[in-house]
């Protein structure tokens, strides 16, 4: 354990030791599942989630929405019964259905980039789409997260891409290509949990949790929805048991569909930009604490902290970050990688720990880049994104 103390601070060891037995067992179980899946996939010819697991995800989505329809049918039956005391159940039922209704993500607004605003970036995305078979995103947004994401939004279920400026700014060209390949890979990696059916069902399941586990944070406030939320835990105990079962089942889906699809997205990124580029990207992902610390120091180190940050302030911050990232010593990256393995941490329940992703990449055949992007093209993309990256920088300095 001496080596562990060299990696983790004393207070972190005390925090881990103080965790409840259930939390520790849950964390260790997740680690074992992730490691077992990684070992199976090293030898697998196809990383795509199995057909049974994907079918199970579809059944999960249908079951959740059927539950909402059942509540609606019960409310209508109470309304049509003509028995006035049952009208209370009608009000309760309609309130529950309103809260649980399937909801699509809103269509991107004016702050999203379209092809005419960033033709260079979209040209690169077209090439990646051609290599991966994924649809080209219709919209791109730059935000302040150290992350990137892809999704489908609106009634037309259009693909969109979100690029976190802090991450994007520290990547070189090949690493950016790997990041884009990974994100577009999510559109074709067989992850049915991200489809409209299961995604809306997952949001409905979350609302069930809010209704059955009321809190000040989740309370819908006064009105029909608020009344339904307050009365539901008392009236619908069977639903509590049912939702608990659905939550357990969705955890199984995340292991057998989402985690496997995440590994496949890494493999697609390796086919797009090369295995070496994806490994380099993973290395930069471990720099997140250092990047966040740099931004915090810059924010509170401004002499004119009370003045709204200018475009020049944001530009200086990004230039300084790019210089700073080159000064991080190699041993710090090694330490971060060892910490990832020691903690067995995940970004969330659908993302395997970075050390497992690296193991799988290194354990499978080495890939070369299917897409090439010149330095001049990346400079053109930087010019296109500069106004948006700068504005994000200003928001981070406020």
TrEMBL record:
Record keyword rRNA-binding present: no
Residues annotated as domain Peptidase M48: 128-363
Domain of life assignment: Bacteria
Glycoprotein recorded as keyword: no
GO biological process: proteolysis
Coiled coil stretches, renumbered: none
Needed cofactors: Zn(2+)
Matches recorded under Pfam families: Peptidase_M48 (PF01435)
Keyword vocabulary terms for this entry: Cell membrane, Hydrolase, Membrane, Metal-binding, Metalloprotease, Protease, Transmembrane, Transmembrane helix, Zinc
Annotated transmembrane regions: 55-77, 83-100
Family per record: Belongs to the peptidase M48 family.
PANTHER family per the UniProt record, alphabetical: PROTEASE HTPX (PTHR43221), PROTEASE HTPX HOMOLOG (PTHR43221:SF2)
Protein's name in the database: Peptidase M48 Ste24p
Organism: Catenulispora acidiphila (strain DSM 44928 / JCM 14897 / NBRC 102108 / NRRL B-24433 / ID139908)
């Amino acid at each position: 354990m001496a080596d562990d103390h060299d990696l983790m601070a004393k207070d972190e060891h005390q925090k881990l030791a103080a965790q409840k037995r259930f939390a520790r067992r849950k964390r260790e179980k997740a680690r074992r599942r992730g490691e077992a899946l990684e070992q199976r996939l090293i030898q697998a010819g196809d990383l795509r989630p199995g057909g049974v697991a994907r079918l199970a995800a579809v059944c999960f989505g249908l079951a959740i929405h059927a539950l909402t329809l059942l509540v609606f049918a019960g409310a209508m039956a109470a309304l049509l019964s003509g028995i006035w005391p049952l009208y209370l159940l009608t009000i309760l039922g309609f309130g529950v259905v309103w809260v649980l209704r399937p909801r699509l993500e809103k269509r991107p607004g004016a702050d999203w980039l379209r092809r005419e605003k960033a033709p260079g970036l979209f040209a690169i995305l077209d090439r990646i789409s051609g290599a991966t078979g994924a649809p080209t995103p219709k919209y791109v947004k730059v935000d302040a997260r150290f992350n990137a994401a892809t999704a489908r939004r609106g009634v037309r279920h259009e693909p969109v891409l979100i690029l976190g400026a802090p991450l994007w700014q520290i990547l070189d060209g090949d690493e950016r290509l790997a990041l884009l390949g990974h994100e577009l890979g999510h559109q074709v990696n067989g992850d049915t949990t991200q489809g409209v059916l299961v995604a809306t069902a997952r949001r409905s399941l979350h609302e069930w949790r809010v209704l059955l586990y009321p809190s000040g944070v989740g309370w819908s406030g006064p009105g029909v929805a608020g009344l339904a939320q307050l009365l539901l835990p008392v009236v619908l105990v069977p639903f509590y048991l049912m939702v608990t079962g659905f939550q357990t089942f969705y955890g199984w889906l995340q292991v057998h569909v989402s985690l496997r699809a995440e590994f496949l997205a890494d493999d697609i990124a390796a086919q797009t930009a090369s295995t070496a580029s994806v490994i380099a990207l993973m290395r930069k992902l471990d720099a997140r604490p250092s990047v966040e610390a740099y931004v915090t120091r810059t924010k509170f180190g401004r002499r004119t902290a009370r003045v709204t940050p200018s475009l020049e302030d944001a530009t200086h911050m990004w230039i300084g970050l790019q210089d700073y990232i080159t000064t991080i010593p190699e041993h710090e990256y090694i330490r971060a990688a060892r910490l990832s393995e020691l903690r067995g941490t995940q970004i969330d329940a659908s993302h395997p720990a970075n050390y497992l992703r690296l193991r799988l990449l290194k354990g499978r055949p080495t890939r070369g880049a299917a897409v090439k992007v010149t330095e001049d093209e990346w400079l053109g993309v930087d010019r296109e994104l500069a106004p948006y990256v700068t504005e994000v920088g200003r928001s981070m300095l406020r």
